[in-house]
Amino acid sequence: MEFTPPLLPPDVILHNRGCGINYLQRRGKIPFGQVPEDSWFLREKLCDKIAVDISWSRLEPEEGRFLWDQPEWEGCFQSWIDAGYKILLKVRGMDTLGTFYDQGTPQWVFDAGAKYVDESIAAYRGSWLLNDIPADREQPIRYPVYWDPVYLEKTAALLEALGKRYNGRPEIESFAIAHTGRWGEMHIADHQPIEPWVRQGYSVDAFLEGHRRAIDLYRAAFPDTPLQQSIGSPSFHDRFEDAMPSFEYLAECGVMLKCGGLGKAWHPPFASPWLDDDVCNCLDRFRYQSKIVFENLAPPAALQLGLDLGMSYWQRGGEAEGLGILRVEEPIPIADKKIYSFCRFFPEEYAGLTIEDEKNLWRNLARQCGYRIALQSLSVSVAARRLQTRFLWANQGVAPCYETFRIRLSLAVPGGNEVWSFEQSPACGCSPRVWDARTQIDDLLDWQLPPGISLAGKELRIGIQHTRFNGEMMQLANQGRGADGMYSVGVLQ
């Protein structure tokens, strides 16, 4: 018997674990109940995920005292969980302005003996930095020394508390490694001479050793939660290759690699104006070990480059407070929306975008990001109480499927209850190389049937069930999904 399950149109958005777009909240976060119900992105169900970050100093202002319920943290994101969203979390050891601005490591860490470097805030005014720098304050920007043992000791205690609270919870999509570099992106600083950092023990090797320690601390705290790391250069010379030992270790550990710079190439040669060549090469090198994550809202050509590189997740960048996507429909210049990080570098490309064009940037990414598994055909035969099946799957997405899963098969009374079901791993395995983007997968599976079941007239149903996340069912690019996540294939004759 041959079955050809109907496919969904390619413009239908799937909501699946481990891929897709995320909304993003900055400071001044907005609970779900305060988002207008008629918002275009809620009507269109663009995604089921939202990313939330907070500075360490805001979450733990005194050692061991955690402000879990504050409006910048659970006081906001719990409302999104209650509305059915999954959350991507980040606690930053260093944010934009550092300790004295409540945007970084709390002062009590330094009082305990952790080393730091203070840089003049005046050096940042009028610089490349895209964030707003206050003109009326003169406190320095205080950086932690990321490889300092006291800093790492206090980080370990924080992560232990975070892990106890969030590890393994299915509503937590991922947790970001964010205690190395500004914004957790592996950047140190480049506005001051290197000498103050050298006096605190700086070298590329020291940085990499501290970063590896931080990675291990996060892995210990979150053994059951996916991790991601924003990638950058640990070098004052901005040599991306200096970080390669860290990238190799992250990939070895299966940590997602996130690039926050999509939309602007900074260093020659320039194969593309949208992203440095060495970043492209790095992401391509590790594409079968680590998911690729991009941040930044950019012109269509830039976003297409991210899709071509195998983007699993995407979120907007920019410094708009609250829920940035709310600003898309505002009839103001794009630069004033503060969700387009690099618009000043490519003014003509951005000026040509209408509000509908801006919406289409989000829609296109929501449709394409990550994997998109479809069952194209299923052949079934019966021999000696064994059901022999041949599945022809296709990954229609732009990224490999990195998830581990089992194929579930069931027999049911047509339109009614199941009378038998079983799950088993695909014979071809769950390797990202096998389930690569734009690839067909041919898989043969045998199913032992119990005695006493008549096959004639039974409805055959199939589904893909994650091995983690409480056995959550994957959404396929097929029609006919039931409330249990299974898909009706047809009736056996």
Describe the structure.
- This protein is α/β, with parallel strands linked by helices.
- Helices cover 23% and strands 23% of the residues.
- The protein is built from 13 helices and 18 strands.
- The protein has an 8-stranded parallel β-barrel, surrounded by 5 helices. Strands 1-12-13-16 form a 4-stranded antiparallel sheet, with no helix packed on it.
- Strand 14 and strand 15 form a beta hairpin.
- Helix 5 runs parallel beside helix 7.
Q: N-to-C terminal Cα separation, in Å?
A: 8 Å
Strand line-up in the sheet with most strands: 2-3-4-7-8-9-10-11
Shape: elongated
Annotation, overall tally of beta strands: 18
Mind describing the biggest β-sheet? 8 strands, parallel, barrel
How many helices? The count is: 13
Mean pLDDT: 95
Query: Helix content range of the residues, please?
Result: 10-25%
Class based on secondary structure composition and strand pairing: alpha/beta
Cα-based radius of gyration, to the nearest Å:
24 Å
Give the DSSP E fraction (strand runs of 2 or more residues).
15-25%
